[in-house]
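BACKBONE GEOMETRY TOKENS
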Amino acid sequence: MGWSKAKLLAIVAMLASSGNRSDALRLHLAGALANGVTREEIIELLIQLSVYRGFPAALNAFSVARSVFALGVQPLQVDIPMPVDTEIRTDRLERGKAPKARPLQAMPWSAVLTISHRTSGA
């Protein structure tokens, strides 16, 4: 299932508005372009950003967008290392169902009330 343009543009807007997330913005701009968002839509978003978030954030975002536009639409290549110690989901589920070594004992209500009375500042 693909991402909608609105979702992609919302992510770009959020990253661009921070003003200092250029690596993440670069990645999401490339992803947005690869998934059907046009340059014109991105430029319009950044123009609106300049009004609502300020020129410094918008100028930073335009700089990142210019570098992404220069590369053109390319397939994303993200190098995410796989975890070394993987666990099968069913094993994790069974481990979670296993009885605990020592069951929790209920606190007497008087102790709970005393603790909550002392921490409430009353």
About this structure: Residues 55-71 form the longest helix (17 residues).
